[in-house]
Design goal:
Elements (H helix, E strand, L loop, with lengths): L40 E5 L3 E4 L6 E3 L4 E7 L2 E13 L6 E4 L12 E11 L6 E5 L5 E8 L2 E4 L5 E14 L2
Antiparallel strand pairs: 1-4, 2-6, 3-5, 4-5, 5-11, 6-9, 7-8, 7-11, 8-9, 9-10
């Protein structure tokens, strides 16, 4: 139902969802040029992949390891729990790949929250997240005396686990 014939002196008629109580969006988005038109809603799961220095050699996951997302318009909220059973042999900075949508390429680094982090070594502050613009990747940092320090394989153990949520915008 289009609401494009609304006049300034009358409010729009509410959408009546009938007895189903559901609003159905098409499986393929039908983008609108009007910034005030909600043209997409989606829920689903995604597969988080942890890498060290861009490599995931030998990394294996325990239970629970799972992820889900909700996309409303161009706003994506993605949550995941990652449980390692082996951190593998890769070295370098940690990065999580596989977000369900790439972030906008606008130089705004979206952050998230880590609700739980365990099985880490030499982490002196809070564990933090940052979604890279124009990518489907998340970086993890620790707050080290007020300054961010990126985490690496040296901070992880074979039993590390992370619970986190990030919210970012996509195209």
């Amino acid at each position: 139902m289009a609401l494009d014939n609304i006049t300034s002196n009358r409010l729009p008629t509410p959408i009546d969802t009938g007895s189903t109580g559901q609003i159905v969006f098409p499986s393929t988005q039908n983008p609108s040029a009007d910034v005030n038109t909600l043209d997409d809603y989606e829920e689903g799961t995604w597969t988080p992949v942890l890498t060290f220095g861009g490599d995931s050699t030998g990394i294996t996951y325990g239970s629970p390891t799972l992820a889900r997302y909700t996309k409303v318009g161009r706003k994506v909220t993605a949550s995941a729990v990652i449980t390692l059973s082996s951190k593998g042999t890769a070295t370098g900075n940690v990065q999580l790949t596989g977000l369900p949508f790439a972030a906008l390429n606008d130089q705004i680094f979206a952050s998230g929250s880590v609700g739980w982090a365990s099985g880490f070594s030499s982490v002196v502050g809070a564990v933090m997240t940052m979604v890279q613009p124009n990518s489907s990747k998340v970086n993890f940092y620790q707050s080290n005396n007020g300054a961010p320090a990126i985490l690496s394989n040296a901070n992880f153990s074979n039993t590390s686990s992370l619970y986190f949520t990030v919210t970012y915008e996509t195209t």
